Every structure is written in C-alpha cells, then in structure tokens.
Amino acid sequence: MSIDLYGLGLAGLFIGTLLAGSFVPFSADALFVAFAAVYDGDMLPCLLVAIIGNWIGGMVTYLCGRLAKWEWVEKKFKIKPETLARHKTRIDQYGVLTALVAWIPIFGQAVLLSLGFYKSKLIPTMVILAAGITIRFLAWALILG
Predict the structure, then answer these.
(1) pLDDT for 30-66, tens place per residue?
(2) Which domain holds residue 57?
(3) Per the structure, how many domains does the chain have?
(4) What is the pTM of this model?
(5) Which of 51, 109, 115, 142 could link 120 by a cystine bridge, Cβ 3.0 to 4.6 Å?
(6) Is residue 1 part of a domain?
(7) 3-state class of 66 per DSSP?
C-alpha cells in the first residue's frame, strides 16, 4: 500500500514535511521542491504548510529526546554514546543555537534529540528551530520563483 502525497494536496505536503521533520529519513526539501513544481496554486500556502509541518515534526523529535532515557535512545535510534557526547559538547558550546541546523536530514534529528535529551530551554529551542526551517524553505521558494 502506498500513499500518494501529491494527491492529498497541501495535506500531503503537511504530512510529508512533518514525517521528514521527525524520524522518517527523507528530505523535506526534495518534497517541497517537487510539490511546488507541480502545485498550481499560490506558493505562500505551500511555504506555510511546509514550515509548520516540518516544525511540528522537529518538535516531536525534540520532545522524544526530552522524555527519553539513555538506554532507550541508544537502542531505538541506534545513536552511540559517543555521538550523544559529541552533541553534548556542541550544545554546551552553542546552546539552543544548534537548533538552527536541525533541518539537515539525519544530522538534524540527532541534534534535536540531543537538545531534548539534555533539556535545552523549550521556548528558545522552538523559536530557533522555526527560524532555521523558515529560512530554509524561504530560500527554496526564492530559488523556485
């Protein structure tokens, strides 16, 4: 059984970008570009839906990290203790600003898990994550015209 995200319209874009922002390993960028290329409507709804969907997916990842136990993170997400330790060093150095790079596939999910796991401040993390995602999709919208 396959799901036709394009056939779902903006709801499909929302679902796809939400999943890409969480733990499903595919690119929200590619989905947005492909969707925008075939979508006949105004670019603004596409942009807003992609930003909101991807942000919610990222926050799900962050909250999973916040609720997680060390052993669970290692087992379920196959993240090695060394990786979390490296992320801890970066988080200690840059704080919630690391959420700016959380849109990068796979790497960003580990960053968000780490931010949650190490209990970064919720509101600044939410805002900075939203800013990074918005900048990314705005760049694509400008490239696409």
Answers:
(1) 889 988 887 776 788 899 999 999 999 999 999 998 9
(2) 10-144
(3) 1
(4) 0.84
(5) 115
(6) no
(7) helix
Residue at token pair 């087992």: 75
Long-range CB contact pairs, 2-10, < 8 A, 24+? 5/31, 5/35, 6/34, 6/35, 6/38, 9/39, 10/45, 10/46, 10/49
Q: Would residue 134 count as lying in a domain?
A: yes
Report how far apart the first and last C-alpha atoms of the chain are (Å, whole number): 34
Token pair 């970064």 is at which residue?
120
Query: Half-sphere exposure of residue 95, counting CA atoms within 13 Å on the CB side?
Result: 7
Q: Is residue 3 part of a domain?
A: no
Structure tokens at 61: 């990842």
Query: Does residue 131 belong to any structural domain of this protein?
Result: yes
Q: Which two tokens stand for residue 42?
A: 């105004």
